[in-house]
Amino acid sequence: MAVIVVDAAAFCHGPEVVDGLVDRLGVARLTDAEIFARAAERFSVAPKKLERLMYGPPSFFGTPRREKTRLLAVLRAAMAEEVAVDGWVYLGLAGHLLPPTLTHTLKVCLAAPREWRIQRAMTTGMPRRDAERAVTRDDEVRAEWTHLVSGRGPWDKDLFDVFLAMQDASVEEAVTSLAEYAARPVLRLTDTAAEAIRDFRLATQVGLALAEAGHDVDVLCRRGAVEVLIKQHTLFLERVQREIEDVSRGVDGVASVTARPGPQYREPGVAFNVDLEVPSRILLVDDEKEFVHTLSERLQTRRMTPAIAYDGEQALAMVANEEPDVIVLDLKMPGIDGIEVLRRVKRTNPRTEVIILTGHGSEAEEVLAAELGAFAYLRKPVDLDVLTDTMKAAYRKVSRARETEGE
After folding, report:
1. Which residue among 112, 219, 308, 346 sits deepest, i.e. has the most Cβ atoms within 10 Å of its Cβ?
2. DSSP letter string over 276-313?
3. How far apart are CA 275 and CA 304, in angstroms?
């Protein structure tokens, strides 16, 4: 029985079509929640991170390229495990991780014109403005994901085996059509299809090992022969090739390996120096908007790109959603003040380092901040070099803690 992966635009009857296929074919249903949970169990990754990578919203602090590469490799490896099981239907975006070499998979797109989808949303009682926003957001998520995975647009017909225009088809017609497709002999799990599954699984295992080692690559595999396509330009190509080949050979099942520049490998027009001591997730918290925006702009000249919160409540909400490396925190703010923010952050996120930056603090508050775990206590106006050096020192402490814990 074929594996059917369905990518349905919002308000295009995706859940109803999948329910119909499950009932008609007597197969299992695979959900995003199951994929995220199994990936988390196998590869020690928080399900929330995988969900955010696929569906958003974007991180306040941006997702570092290396982390994004690893999360994508984890999802691809998880799908490789699932695709080895014959006969299931999936609704979501993870199907785009499956290569065209898997001949027993049927990739389906359910789509319709934007206005038709808006009208469909409004039949559920949704106001037009909300319907427009929902359709727009769905299209944005789909476009970001397909570009990340394949470099293509979300409606590119080369991504699918079957493209159904749902404005012209009922749910029953869609289910019948897809069930007939799924019964075709070409989609049976033959020996050739089984070999393609083994190749895909090995390719994802190599890809994950390389992502863990910091390499952003594409991996091809045929009968144990692995070919790694390097995507990022490097001044030390031969050394990188050797590193990639050494890591790949350490994966069980690899018979041979070659690494070479792939089609995305381009020499950059400008070379940038990367400061590895600069924290990647910085949060500035200050109710003085003009000051905090100016500080943010000045930090960007030092290759730091901070997120901003204007009060304690907003800061705590952002920290609850995603852990920053370093927080630069004002004390005197309306509502939840800086001392209370510091207390809560160190209780829930003890590895996050907090630098107090205030123009109104007292000696007693400085002592209290130190007792609560503040990394440093600075006063406004602060010299930018002093602040950035302090932030780098705080980040070194964060990095050492992560290394000790094996992250």
Report:
1. 219
2. TTS-S-EEEE-S-HHHHHHHHHHHHTTT---EEESSHH
3. 10
276 within some domain: no
Which residues lie closer than 8 Å to 67 by C-beta, 6 or more apart? none
pTM: 0.73
- Token representation of residue 141: 């998520």
Give the largest CA-CA distance in the chain.
79
**369-385 per-position pLDDT tens digit:** 999 999 999 999 999 99
Q: Are residues 249 and 322 in the same domain?
A: no
Q: What angle do CA 327, 328, 334 make, to 5 degrees?
A: 105
Residues 268-286 pLDDT 10s: 554 445 456 788 899 999 9
Sheet strand arrangement including 162-165: 28-30, 88-91, 3-8, 105-111, 162-165
Q: Taking residues 112-125, report their average pLDDT.
A: 96
CA distance 335 to 333: 6
Distance separating alpha carbons of residues 363 and 174, to the nearest angstrom: 71
Do 228 and 361 fall within a single domain? no
**Overall number of domains in the chain:** 3
- Residue 272 is predicted with a pLDDT of 46
- Domain residues for 256? 192-261
CB 99 within 8 A of CB 216: no
Residue 98: DSSP 8-state: S
CATH of the domain at 391: 3.40.50.2300
Sheet harboring 307-309: ordered strands across?
307-309, 282-285, 326-329, 353-358, 376-379
Residue 271 lies in a domain: no
Rounded distance, CA 208 to CA 69, Å? 9
